[in-house]
Amino acid sequence: MRKIRNFHSRSVYLCCVFLIAGTYFYFLIFAQFAFLQMAARAGNGVESAMPVMLSMGIAGIGSSFLTAHLLKFLSSSLMLRVGFIGCACTAIIAPVLTDMIAWVADAFLIGLFLGVLTVSLASDLRSIAGRKNFALQVGFGTGLAYWLCNCPIVFAASQSLQALIAAIFCAACAIAVPRIAKQTSDEDLPSEQHIDGSANSIFIFIAMLIAFFSLIWLDSAAFFIIQQTTGLKTQTWSDDSQLWLNGGIHLCVAIFAGLMIDRGYLRSLLVVAYLALCFGVLSLRGSTELYVFAAPLYVAGVSIYSTALIAYPSLIGSLCQNMSRRWQAGILYGVAGWCGSAIGIVMAQDLHEVPLWLLAVTGFIVLCTGLKD
Questions:
Q1: Angle made by CA atoms 111, 149, 21, in degrees to the nearest 5
Q2: I need a surface site. Which of 27, 231, 255, 327 has the fewest CB within 10 A?
Q3: The model's pTM
Q4: In the beta sheet, which residues pair with residue 323?
Q5: Where are the domains of the chain?
Q6: Gap between the Cα atoms of 367 and 278, Å rounded
Q7: Does residue 370 contact residue 267 with C-beta atoms inside 8 Å?
Protein backbone atom coordinates (compact mmCIF):
# COMPACT_ATOMS: atom_id res chain seq x y z
CA MET A 1 0.00 0.00 0.00
CA ARG A 2 2.85 2.37 0.82
CA LYS A 3 4.44 1.67 -2.58
CA ILE A 4 1.13 2.48 -4.27
CA ARG A 5 0.87 5.78 -2.39
CA ASN A 6 4.49 6.67 -3.23
CA PHE A 7 3.90 5.86 -6.89
CA HIS A 8 0.75 8.01 -6.91
CA SER A 9 2.60 10.86 -5.23
CA ARG A 10 5.41 10.75 -7.78
CA SER A 11 2.99 10.53 -10.71
CA VAL A 12 1.09 13.59 -9.45
CA TYR A 13 4.38 15.46 -8.99
CA LEU A 14 5.55 14.60 -12.52
CA CYS A 15 2.15 15.52 -13.99
CA CYS A 16 2.27 18.98 -12.42
CA VAL A 17 5.85 19.55 -13.60
CA PHE A 18 4.97 18.31 -17.10
CA LEU A 19 1.95 20.61 -17.51
CA ILE A 20 3.85 23.68 -16.32
CA ALA A 21 6.83 22.87 -18.55
CA GLY A 22 4.56 22.35 -21.55
CA THR A 23 2.80 25.66 -21.02
CA TYR A 24 5.98 27.67 -20.63
CA PHE A 25 7.76 25.83 -23.47
CA TYR A 26 4.96 26.62 -25.93
CA PHE A 27 4.88 30.26 -24.85
CA LEU A 28 8.64 30.73 -24.99
CA ILE A 29 9.85 28.75 -27.99
CA PHE A 30 6.80 29.19 -30.22
CA ALA A 31 4.48 32.07 -29.27
CA GLN A 32 7.21 34.54 -28.32
CA PHE A 33 10.04 33.31 -30.57
CA ALA A 34 9.42 31.01 -33.56
CA PHE A 35 6.01 32.42 -34.47
CA LEU A 36 7.09 36.05 -34.32
CA GLN A 37 10.27 35.25 -36.29
CA MET A 38 8.21 33.56 -39.01
CA ALA A 39 5.72 36.43 -39.09
CA ALA A 40 8.52 39.01 -39.37
CA ARG A 41 10.18 37.03 -42.16
CA ALA A 42 6.88 36.72 -44.03
CA GLY A 43 6.44 40.50 -43.91
CA ASN A 44 8.98 43.29 -43.99
CA GLY A 45 10.73 42.70 -40.71
CA VAL A 46 9.84 43.48 -37.11
CA GLU A 47 7.55 46.39 -37.94
CA SER A 48 5.33 44.17 -40.09
CA ALA A 49 4.91 41.80 -37.13
CA MET A 50 3.38 44.51 -34.93
CA PRO A 51 -0.22 43.76 -36.07
CA VAL A 52 0.48 40.12 -35.24
CA MET A 53 1.69 40.95 -31.73
CA LEU A 54 -1.24 43.34 -31.24
CA SER A 55 -3.72 40.63 -32.27
CA MET A 56 -2.11 38.12 -29.92
CA GLY A 57 -2.10 40.57 -27.02
CA ILE A 58 -5.74 41.63 -27.43
CA ALA A 59 -6.86 38.00 -27.60
CA GLY A 60 -4.71 37.08 -24.60
CA ILE A 61 -6.15 39.84 -22.44
CA GLY A 62 -9.75 39.06 -23.40
CA SER A 63 -9.27 35.32 -23.05
CA SER A 64 -7.75 35.67 -19.57
CA PHE A 65 -10.87 37.41 -18.27
CA LEU A 66 -13.24 35.16 -20.21
CA THR A 67 -11.56 32.02 -18.84
CA ALA A 68 -11.83 33.31 -15.29
CA HIS A 69 -15.59 33.62 -15.85
CA LEU A 70 -16.01 30.25 -17.58
CA LEU A 71 -14.19 28.38 -14.84
CA LYS A 72 -17.19 29.03 -12.62
CA PHE A 73 -19.22 26.68 -14.84
CA LEU A 74 -16.67 24.37 -16.50
CA SER A 75 -14.09 22.05 -14.98
CA SER A 76 -10.46 23.13 -15.15
CA SER A 77 -9.50 19.77 -16.68
CA LEU A 78 -11.77 20.48 -19.65
CA MET A 79 -10.43 24.01 -20.02
CA LEU A 80 -6.84 22.77 -19.81
CA ARG A 81 -7.43 20.19 -22.55
CA VAL A 82 -9.07 22.82 -24.75
CA GLY A 83 -6.11 25.15 -24.13
CA PHE A 84 -3.43 22.56 -24.90
CA ILE A 85 -5.20 21.19 -27.98
CA GLY A 86 -5.83 24.71 -29.30
CA CYS A 87 -2.20 25.69 -28.75
CA ALA A 88 -1.03 22.55 -30.55
CA CYS A 89 -3.22 23.37 -33.55
CA THR A 90 -1.94 26.95 -33.79
CA ALA A 91 1.64 25.69 -33.84
CA ILE A 92 0.94 23.05 -36.50
CA ILE A 93 -0.63 25.48 -38.98
CA ALA A 94 1.88 28.32 -38.52
CA PRO A 95 4.58 27.07 -40.93
CA VAL A 96 2.11 26.86 -43.84
CA LEU A 97 0.66 30.37 -43.50
CA THR A 98 1.26 32.63 -46.49
CA ASP A 99 -0.36 36.06 -46.03
CA MET A 100 -0.45 38.59 -43.20
CA ILE A 101 -4.19 38.17 -42.61
CA ALA A 102 -3.60 34.51 -41.83
CA TRP A 103 -0.72 35.42 -39.50
CA VAL A 104 -2.90 37.90 -37.62
CA ALA A 105 -5.70 35.33 -37.33
CA ASP A 106 -3.35 32.64 -36.02
CA ALA A 107 -1.85 35.14 -33.58
CA PHE A 108 -5.35 35.83 -32.27
CA LEU A 109 -5.89 32.10 -31.72
CA ILE A 110 -2.53 31.81 -29.97
CA GLY A 111 -3.49 34.55 -27.54
CA LEU A 112 -6.94 33.04 -27.10
CA PHE A 113 -5.76 29.53 -26.23
CA LEU A 114 -2.82 30.76 -24.16
CA GLY A 115 -5.24 32.77 -22.05
CA VAL A 116 -7.38 29.67 -21.53
CA LEU A 117 -4.35 27.57 -20.70
CA THR A 118 -2.51 29.85 -18.30
CA VAL A 119 -5.50 30.97 -16.27
CA SER A 120 -6.96 27.46 -16.02
CA LEU A 121 -3.64 26.02 -14.91
CA ALA A 122 -2.67 28.69 -12.40
CA SER A 123 -6.09 29.09 -10.82
CA ASP A 124 -6.44 25.40 -9.97
CA LEU A 125 -2.84 24.26 -9.78
CA ARG A 126 -3.04 23.32 -6.10
CA SER A 127 -5.65 20.66 -6.81
CA ILE A 128 -3.22 19.07 -9.28
CA ALA A 129 0.00 19.49 -7.32
CA GLY A 130 -1.29 19.03 -3.78
CA ARG A 131 0.05 20.79 -0.72
CA LYS A 132 3.49 19.24 -0.26
CA ASN A 133 6.37 21.04 -2.02
CA PHE A 134 3.90 22.87 -4.22
CA ALA A 135 6.16 25.72 -5.33
CA LEU A 136 9.09 23.34 -5.81
CA GLN A 137 7.03 21.58 -8.48
CA VAL A 138 6.29 24.94 -10.07
CA GLY A 139 9.99 25.83 -10.05
CA PHE A 140 10.99 22.49 -11.52
CA GLY A 141 8.46 22.80 -14.35
CA THR A 142 9.40 26.41 -15.08
CA GLY A 143 13.13 25.71 -15.05
CA LEU A 144 12.70 22.62 -17.22
CA ALA A 145 10.89 24.65 -19.89
CA TYR A 146 13.61 27.29 -19.98
CA TRP A 147 16.30 24.58 -20.03
CA LEU A 148 14.66 22.87 -23.01
CA CYS A 149 14.36 26.18 -24.87
CA ASN A 150 18.07 26.84 -24.36
CA CYS A 151 19.22 23.41 -25.51
CA PRO A 152 21.29 24.19 -28.64
CA ILE A 153 19.50 21.56 -30.72
CA VAL A 154 16.15 23.23 -29.96
CA PHE A 155 17.33 26.84 -29.93
CA ALA A 156 19.15 26.49 -33.28
CA ALA A 157 16.38 24.49 -34.96
CA SER A 158 14.32 26.01 -37.74
CA GLN A 159 11.19 27.87 -36.74
CA SER A 160 9.08 25.18 -38.41
CA LEU A 161 10.72 22.45 -36.33
CA GLN A 162 10.35 24.50 -33.16
CA ALA A 163 6.65 24.88 -33.92
CA LEU A 164 6.32 21.12 -34.44
CA ILE A 165 8.08 20.35 -31.15
CA ALA A 166 5.82 22.78 -29.31
CA ALA A 167 2.74 21.20 -30.90
CA ILE A 168 3.80 17.68 -29.87
CA PHE A 169 4.54 18.85 -26.32
CA CYS A 170 1.10 20.48 -26.04
CA ALA A 171 -0.64 17.40 -27.42
CA ALA A 172 1.14 15.23 -24.86
CA CYS A 173 0.10 17.64 -22.09
CA ALA A 174 -3.54 17.45 -23.23
CA ILE A 175 -3.40 13.69 -22.75
CA ALA A 176 -1.67 14.03 -19.37
CA VAL A 177 -4.21 16.46 -17.86
CA PRO A 178 -5.67 14.76 -14.77
CA ARG A 179 -9.40 14.50 -14.25
CA ILE A 180 -10.68 17.30 -12.03
CA ALA A 181 -14.43 17.07 -11.73
CA LYS A 182 -14.89 20.64 -10.61
CA GLN A 183 -12.59 23.53 -9.95
CA THR A 184 -11.52 23.41 -6.34
CA SER A 185 -13.04 26.25 -4.36
CA ASP A 186 -10.96 28.69 -2.40
CA GLU A 187 -12.30 27.23 0.82
CA ASP A 188 -11.13 23.71 -0.08
CA LEU A 189 -7.51 24.73 -0.52
CA PRO A 190 -5.61 26.52 2.26
CA SER A 191 -4.23 29.94 1.50
CA GLU A 192 -0.57 30.42 2.27
CA GLN A 193 -0.82 32.99 5.03
CA HIS A 194 2.91 32.73 5.72
CA ILE A 195 3.66 34.90 2.65
CA ASP A 196 2.64 37.96 4.63
CA GLY A 197 0.38 38.78 7.49
CA SER A 198 -2.48 40.00 5.29
CA ALA A 199 -2.42 37.64 2.34
CA ASN A 200 -6.14 38.14 1.72
CA SER A 201 -5.86 41.91 1.44
CA ILE A 202 -6.95 43.45 -1.85
CA PHE A 203 -4.20 46.03 -1.45
CA ILE A 204 -1.50 43.37 -1.28
CA PHE A 205 -2.84 41.81 -4.48
CA ILE A 206 -2.81 45.18 -6.26
CA ALA A 207 0.75 45.80 -5.10
CA MET A 208 1.84 42.37 -6.34
CA LEU A 209 0.03 42.95 -9.63
CA ILE A 210 1.94 46.18 -10.19
CA ALA A 211 5.22 44.53 -9.19
CA PHE A 212 4.75 41.65 -11.66
CA PHE A 213 3.67 44.12 -14.34
CA SER A 214 6.88 46.11 -13.84
CA LEU A 215 9.13 43.04 -13.96
CA ILE A 216 7.48 41.69 -17.12
CA TRP A 217 7.66 45.15 -18.68
CA LEU A 218 11.39 45.34 -17.94
CA ASP A 219 12.07 41.75 -19.05
CA SER A 220 10.14 42.11 -22.33
CA ALA A 221 11.92 45.34 -23.23
CA ALA A 222 15.35 43.92 -22.37
CA PHE A 223 14.84 40.63 -24.24
CA PHE A 224 13.51 42.39 -27.35
CA ILE A 225 16.48 44.75 -27.41
CA ILE A 226 18.96 41.89 -26.95
CA GLN A 227 17.37 39.83 -29.73
CA GLN A 228 17.28 42.78 -32.15
CA THR A 229 20.84 43.98 -31.43
CA THR A 230 23.36 41.71 -33.12
CA GLY A 231 26.25 42.53 -30.81
CA LEU A 232 24.27 41.87 -27.64
CA LYS A 233 22.72 38.67 -28.97
CA THR A 234 26.11 37.35 -30.06
CA GLN A 235 27.52 37.88 -26.57
CA THR A 236 24.60 36.33 -24.70
CA TRP A 237 22.62 33.82 -26.81
CA SER A 238 24.66 32.51 -29.75
CA ASP A 239 27.39 30.19 -28.51
CA ASP A 240 26.45 26.61 -27.56
CA SER A 241 28.36 26.79 -24.29
CA GLN A 242 26.53 30.01 -23.41
CA LEU A 243 23.19 28.36 -24.20
CA TRP A 244 23.98 25.39 -21.95
CA LEU A 245 25.04 27.78 -19.21
CA ASN A 246 21.87 29.84 -19.57
CA GLY A 247 19.71 26.73 -19.49
CA GLY A 248 21.46 25.33 -16.44
CA ILE A 249 21.11 28.61 -14.55
CA HIS A 250 17.43 28.80 -15.49
CA LEU A 251 16.78 25.31 -14.14
CA CYS A 252 18.79 25.63 -10.92
CA VAL A 253 17.54 29.11 -10.03
CA ALA A 254 13.89 28.21 -10.75
CA ILE A 255 14.14 25.18 -8.44
CA PHE A 256 15.76 27.35 -5.77
CA ALA A 257 12.98 29.93 -6.18
CA GLY A 258 10.39 27.20 -5.70
CA LEU A 259 12.05 26.08 -2.48
CA MET A 260 12.11 29.64 -1.16
CA ILE A 261 8.48 30.25 -2.09
CA ASP A 262 7.49 27.11 -0.18
CA ARG A 263 9.17 28.72 2.83
CA GLY A 264 7.25 31.97 2.46
CA TYR A 265 9.76 34.25 0.72
CA LEU A 266 7.83 35.03 -2.47
CA ARG A 267 7.76 38.81 -2.08
CA SER A 268 11.42 38.97 -1.09
CA LEU A 269 12.26 36.90 -4.18
CA LEU A 270 10.75 39.58 -6.40
CA VAL A 271 13.35 42.00 -5.03
CA VAL A 272 16.10 39.47 -5.82
CA ALA A 273 14.65 38.99 -9.32
CA TYR A 274 14.71 42.74 -9.94
CA LEU A 275 18.29 43.11 -8.71
CA ALA A 276 19.43 40.27 -10.97
CA LEU A 277 17.63 41.76 -13.98
CA CYS A 278 18.92 45.22 -13.16
CA PHE A 279 22.57 44.25 -12.85
CA GLY A 280 22.27 42.03 -15.92
CA VAL A 281 20.94 44.92 -17.99
CA LEU A 282 23.52 47.33 -16.58
CA SER A 283 26.27 44.86 -17.58
CA LEU A 284 25.10 45.15 -21.17
CA ARG A 285 25.38 48.93 -20.97
CA GLY A 286 29.01 48.76 -19.83
CA SER A 287 32.15 47.55 -21.55
CA THR A 288 32.26 44.26 -23.43
CA GLU A 289 34.21 42.71 -20.52
CA LEU A 290 31.05 42.97 -18.42
CA TYR A 291 28.95 41.05 -20.95
CA VAL A 292 30.03 37.78 -19.34
CA PHE A 293 27.90 38.67 -16.31
CA ALA A 294 24.88 39.91 -18.26
CA ALA A 295 23.31 36.64 -19.39
CA PRO A 296 23.67 34.71 -16.09
CA LEU A 297 22.20 37.57 -14.06
CA TYR A 298 19.43 38.22 -16.55
CA VAL A 299 18.31 34.59 -16.84
CA ALA A 300 18.44 34.17 -13.05
CA GLY A 301 16.09 37.10 -12.58
CA VAL A 302 13.73 35.79 -15.25
CA SER A 303 13.58 32.33 -13.66
CA ILE A 304 12.79 33.75 -10.23
CA TYR A 305 9.90 35.98 -11.24
CA SER A 306 8.54 33.41 -13.73
CA THR A 307 8.29 30.80 -10.98
CA ALA A 308 6.61 33.31 -8.69
CA LEU A 309 4.18 34.32 -11.44
CA ILE A 310 2.84 30.78 -11.82
CA ALA A 311 2.76 30.04 -8.09
CA TYR A 312 1.24 33.26 -6.78
CA PRO A 313 -2.48 32.75 -7.64
CA SER A 314 -2.44 29.46 -5.74
CA LEU A 315 -0.83 30.97 -2.66
CA ILE A 316 -3.60 33.39 -1.75
CA GLY A 317 -7.19 32.88 -0.77
CA SER A 318 -10.26 34.73 -2.00
CA LEU A 319 -9.71 38.48 -1.70
CA CYS A 320 -13.37 39.29 -1.55
CA GLN A 321 -16.68 37.73 -2.41
CA ASN A 322 -16.33 38.29 -6.15
CA MET A 323 -12.58 37.74 -6.58
CA SER A 324 -11.72 34.06 -6.30
CA ARG A 325 -8.44 32.48 -7.39
CA ARG A 326 -9.65 32.15 -10.96
CA TRP A 327 -10.29 35.91 -11.18
CA GLN A 328 -6.99 36.71 -9.52
CA ALA A 329 -5.23 34.54 -12.11
CA GLY A 330 -7.22 36.15 -14.93
CA ILE A 331 -6.39 39.68 -13.78
CA LEU A 332 -2.75 38.84 -13.07
CA TYR A 333 -2.08 37.34 -16.51
CA GLY A 334 -4.35 39.68 -18.42
CA VAL A 335 -2.93 42.88 -16.95
CA ALA A 336 0.60 42.06 -15.78
CA GLY A 337 1.37 39.32 -18.29
CA TRP A 338 -0.11 40.46 -21.58
CA CYS A 339 -0.19 44.24 -21.04
CA GLY A 340 3.25 44.33 -19.42
CA SER A 341 4.79 42.32 -22.23
CA ALA A 342 3.12 44.38 -24.96
CA ILE A 343 4.15 47.72 -23.48
CA GLY A 344 7.73 46.52 -23.01
CA ILE A 345 8.05 45.36 -26.63
CA VAL A 346 6.43 48.49 -28.10
CA MET A 347 8.64 50.73 -25.98
CA ALA A 348 11.78 48.89 -27.08
CA GLN A 349 11.09 49.20 -30.82
CA ASP A 350 13.51 52.09 -31.41
CA LEU A 351 15.89 51.49 -28.50
CA HIS A 352 19.24 49.72 -28.44
CA GLU A 353 19.58 49.63 -24.67
CA VAL A 354 17.25 49.59 -21.68
CA PRO A 355 16.78 53.17 -20.43
CA LEU A 356 17.88 53.92 -16.90
CA TRP A 357 14.52 55.45 -16.02
CA LEU A 358 12.83 52.08 -16.66
CA LEU A 359 15.25 50.39 -14.25
CA ALA A 360 14.58 53.09 -11.66
CA VAL A 361 10.77 52.93 -11.94
CA THR A 362 10.72 49.14 -11.83
CA GLY A 363 13.09 49.12 -8.87
CA PHE A 364 11.00 51.58 -6.90
CA ILE A 365 7.81 49.57 -7.42
CA VAL A 366 9.33 46.16 -6.68
CA LEU A 367 11.29 47.37 -3.65
CA CYS A 368 8.20 49.00 -2.17
CA THR A 369 6.28 45.76 -2.59
CA GLY A 370 8.96 43.29 -1.59
CA LEU A 371 10.32 45.11 1.44
CA LYS A 372 6.93 45.94 2.93
CA ASP A 373 6.34 44.07 6.21
A1: 65
A2: 231
A3: 0.85
A4: 320
A5: 2-370
A6: 12
A7: yes
